[in-house]
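During the reporting period the student researcher (J.K.) took over the structure-prediction task from the postdoctoral fellow and processed the backlog of single-chain submissions. One of the processed entries is reproduced below for the supervisory committee.
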Amino acid sequence: MTPVPVFVYHAVADDPPGWIAPFTVGPRVFAEQLDRLAAGGRTVIPLAQLVDALCNGGGLPPRPAVLTFDDGFADFWRAVVPELTKRDLPATLYITTGAVRTSGTGTGDSLLPPADMLTWRQIRTLDDAGVEIGGHSRTHPQLDTLPLRGLTDEIDGCRRTLEDELGHKVRTYAYPHGYSDSRVRRNVREAGWSSACAVGNAFSSPNDNPFRIARLTVRADTPLDVFQDWVGGRGARTAPFHERPQTTAWRLYRRARSRLGSPVGGLSSAPSRSHEPGGPS
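J.K. obtained the following structure tokens:
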């Protein structure tokens, strides 16, 4: 299988809030990573092109890569867009709708701690400029621990809000924390989304599941040599693959703790990389 690196970023900033700092890349490092993609012969394609290949057998360039960004931090406007524009690169931005900034730096009706987030006006401008806008839930919960009613609010409610704000259909979803199971994925399909990204810290491929697209999390401590291996198609599994037993066990444990009113595995207690990597995605 041809490995396709689908990178997931969060914040790109020099001085992020402490809670997102482990998943923040500095602007200089981000620019260097984009240059390494080009130097490694990678063609950055829209996520929609990968989805077309997964669903319809659409063509891909010989060495494709995809850039995705989760949550909707305001530094996407300040630090990411200039670098993408300079290189004419496409990207997908997944929005937690309850965290969109209306005033100050709070994250509104979401489980995310305070941070500087994008406004709806900025998101609409990005959409008009060609950045693909996707959904990332309403409040950023662990979807695989929610009852059906909660799932509908987080998946279908997120879609309705985005479509009301943007004035057109939105197609792609990303699971908060990378967490999903068959029930969550079925709900996403039935809500009208055409694809969904997980995490998995693995390469995608032309044989990947379009509702469980594997991504590679770029963290603050991701060494450049590891990033270079990813550019070269090395250093990680390639989807599709069976879920690891420890991932299943971790889900069952999180679900049980959630039902007892003491959830784990969120922003303050992200799972280890051996369980379900991804952190606050």
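The committee noted the following: The beta strands are 6-9, 11-12, 24-25, 43-44, 64-71, 92-95, 132-135, 172-174, 195-200, 213-217.
J.K. will present the remaining backlog at the next meeting.
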